[in-house]
Design goal:
- It is built from 7 helices and 7 strands; from the N terminus they run ββαααβββαβααβα.
- The strands form 2 sheets. It has a 4-stranded parallel beta sheet with strand order 3-2-6-7, sandwiched between helices. A 3-stranded antiparallel beta sheet has the order 1-4-5.
- By secondary structure, it is α/β, with parallel strands linked by helices.
- The chain starts with a strand and ends with a helix.
């Protein structure tokens, strides 16, 4: 079992929660979300926020919090081979009440189909908020161009 090593990123002004499935090997090494250099999460979020693409953890943190977002993952611990969502088993979900009780979350989005299926299975009924599934920003989702990802994310988020 691997335990999620990254704390949730949010503050009392966070209104939109974005959940992934579980941190990649690179993210676990870095100790921060979407650490793989080819993951398009940070470029998509920067474009949505009309901001420069952040490079440091401090810049990434500021981008998320300054624009009233929150970040975390559905899974607290699991068995996983490398970074492949398809290998995830023996899931223990995160407790989202940590965020939901102190932030002003109005919408929940999930980054990819695996995060969406896990959210529906472990969290949706308990939380009472349906999550909107966004196409994954992972480099494994090569069928989506950067521009197409950005347009889809922006339209779904309504920002």
């Amino acid at each position: 079992m691997i335990v999620h090593p990254i704390h949730p990123l949010y503050n009392e002004k966070s209104e939109i929660l974005i959940l992934g499935s579980f941190p990649s090997v690179k993210s676990r090494e870095e100790g921060f979300f979407y650490g793989h250099r080819r993951n398009r999460f940070w470029s998509v979020m920067a474009k949505i926020c009309d901001a420069p693409v952040p490079s440091s953890i401090e810049e990434k943190t500021n981008l998320i919090l300054d624009h009233h977002f929150a970040l975390w993952d559905v899974i607290h611990s699991c068995e996983i081979s490398g970074s492949a969502d398809s290998t995830i088993k023996n899931v223990v979900p995160n407790d989202l009440s940590i965020i939901l009780e102190s932030a002003q979350i109005k919408k929940i989005f999930v980054n990819g189909k695996k995060a969406h299926s896990l959210y529906k299975k472990y969290m949706e009924k308990q939380i009472g908020i349906s999550a909107v599934c966004l196409p994954s920003t992972s480099p494994a989702n090569a069928g989506w161009s950067d521009d197409r990802l950005f347009e889809y994310w922006k339209n779904e988020m309504g920002v």
